[in-house]
Design a protein that fits this description.
Layout: E1 2-9, E2 12-17, E3 20-25, H1 29-39, E4 48-54, H2 64-71, E5 77-79, H3 84-103, H4 114-131, E6 140-144, H5 151-158, E7 163-167, H6 175-178, H7 183-193, E8 198-201, H8 204-218, E9 222-223, E10 226-228, E11 233-238, H9 245-258, H10 260-265, E12 272-279, H11 286-299, E13 307-314, H12 321-341, E14 349-353, H13 358-367, E15 370-373, H14 382-389, E16 397-401, E17 414-416, H15 421-432, H16 436-452, H17 455-478
Helix pairs in contact: 3-4, 7-8, 9-13, 9-14, 11-12, 11-15
The chain binds 6-O-phosphono-beta-D-fructofuranose.
Length: 479
């Protein structure tokens, strides 16, 4: 059996290097996680894989043909190319100005445009067109994320017997939020997802919210997460996505042994380091995080010159206006904090608007004393898990938002409500004062948890349910 991964993005994104067209690794949890999985080998019972997705718009001076030619050297990657219109109305538009804010429970930031919906349908059809010529009935198709919620049903219509999984990497909202969508859109989105045999979410809460929408909007009941449609059974369950634990653990050991850590820390003698890493996104709660840090500095002058916040924000969705506004707000606040508290030899916030490589990130995870991760809402948040996996000495503190999916597994973290600035400020102070023994205890438990359910287990679990569902359907058909 072949595994066909379908996701909005390919694991590589095109860039211009000098006069040539090149590729860089795509950022974000989905590609990082699935890439790690494929490096580890094919999931259980599958012989081969390919990945269908978008490689980004061709850089200036190159066209689609050049892009296709360059990708031909990576035969496992099947490109879906967008027109500029599709990029604007589907990717920046319906996906990231409607579904993204709404599913993160931010309806006041959500826009609803009919022409963007039309392009969303078109984009899903485009993925189907790329898939159809290559699909075989015995393939396992695994569709990912909110960009492609209509696709499972589109594939089902063409290939009634094929096995399809759908996994949502962002939160599924509560019924009262989901129903804000125009009724035709919300019914079609649910119908689209229900074309799959297995529908997966990061947490049980998201799965339950989805089942409630299925009941209230599509009128279908479930028994223990199994939904009977006219002629099929759809299994709905949570699969908390893991990370490549061993990669981070190994990199951390190497960083410690090579002396890179000590070299890095030379510039921070006598200081504690707080680390914050995200894509620059308004759902990540960066403004509240900075306000919490500002309040902490105001309340605790004893920590001045003894702590620095390293804030890394990777550029993301820069054509969506809300992201541009958020960047300005963050940069003003960083300037305000550094202006108010900074000293000639101390910059309280070290702000970096950059995409870091794996090695650079690993070094930061190893050297920080505290990771400060405060999204307003987040499907999972793999950064929290990467930090924990990198703490091979079992020390360090994770401050984690209760509204990140990861908080349901990493219960020994210092859990805070990201909307309450004082909670963030107090958590920073408490974390910096935790004893070695307290740190060790919490970190050991969290490491055990994420080692036990890493990205390979996650995929095996999901694909295992898909193969089970295939057997059930085959048996039912034979009766
Ligand atoms: O986690 C949600 C998600 O959209 C993923 O699909 C992706 O890995 C990440 O955010 C980055 O987003 P984008 O592909 O829009 O850059």
């Amino acid at each position: 059996m072949r595994l066909i991964i379908v996701a909005n993005r390919l694991p590589v994104t095109t860039v211009r290097r000098g006069t040539t067209l090149a590729f860089k690794p795509s950022i974000g949890g989905l590609t990082t996680g699935l890439n790690a999985l494929l490096r580890a080998g094919n999931p259980k019972g599958l012989d081969d894989y390919c990945w269908v997705g978008w490689p980004g718009l061709p850089p200036a001076g190159f066209d689609d043909e050049a892009l296709r030619a360059a990708l031909a050297e990576m035969p496992r990657y099947v490109p879906v190319l967008y027109s500029k219109k599709l990029y604007k109305d589907f990717y920046s538009g319906f996906c990231n100005s409607c579904l993204w804010p709404l599913f993160h429970a931010l309806p006041t930031l959500t826009t609803y445009q009919e022409w963007q919906w039309t392009q969303y349908v078109r984009a899903n059809e485009l993925y189907l067109e790329a898939l159809a010529p290559m699909l075989r009935e015995d393939d396992v198709v695994w569709v990912h994320d909110y960009h492609l919620m209509l696709l499972p049903q589109m594939i089902r219509q063409k290939f009634p017997r094929i096995t399809i999984g759908f996994f949502l990497h962002i939160p599924f909202p509560h019924y009262e939020i989901f129903r804000i969508l125009p009724s035709a859109w919300r019914s079609q989105l649910l119908k689209g997802m229900m074309g799959a045999d297995v529908v997966g979410f990061h947490t049980n809460d998201y799965a339950q919210d989805f089942l409630k929408c299925i009941l209230k909007i599509s009128g279908l009941e479930n028994k223990d997460g199994l939904v009977m449609t006219q002629n099929r059974i759809v299994a709905v369950r949570n699969y908390p996505m893991g990370i490549a634990y061993d990669d981070f653990h190994r990199a951390a050991l190497e960083t410690e042994a090579s002396g890179k850590k000590n070299e890095f820390l030379k510039d921070f003698q006598g200081q504690k380091l707080i680390l914050s890493v995200d894509r620059l996104d308004y759902t990540k709660g960066v403004v509240n995080r900075l306000l919490g840090y500002e309040q902490f500095l105001a309340k605790h002058p004893e920590w001045h010159q003894k702590v620095s916040l390293i804030m890394v924000l990777a550029p993301s969705r820069t054509d969506v206006s809300l992201y541009g506004r958020m960047k300005k707000e963050i940069e003003m606040l960083v300037g305000k904090i550094n202006g108010a508290f900074g000293q000639p030899h101390w910059t309280p916030v070290l702000y970096q608007y950059q995409t870091k490589s794996f090695d650079e990130l690993s070094l930061l995870y190893v050297t920080a004393d505290v990771a400060l991760i405060t999204p307003l809402r987040d499907g999972m948040n793999l950064i929290a898990k990467e930090f924990v996996a990198s703490r091979s000495r079992q020390n360090g503190v994770l401050i984690l938002s209760e509204l990140a999916g990861a908080s349901q597994e990493l219960i020994e973290a210092k859990i805070i409500n990201p909307f309450h600035i004082r909670e963030i400020a107090d958590a920073i102070d408490e974390s910096l004062n935790l004893t070695e023994a307290e740190q060790h205890d919490a970190m050991t438990r969290m490491r055990r948890q994420i080692k036990g359910y890493d990205v390979v287990r996650w995929a095996d679990d999901f694909v295992g349910d898909l193969t089970k569902s295939r057997k059930t359907m085959d048996a039912l058909r034979q009766k």
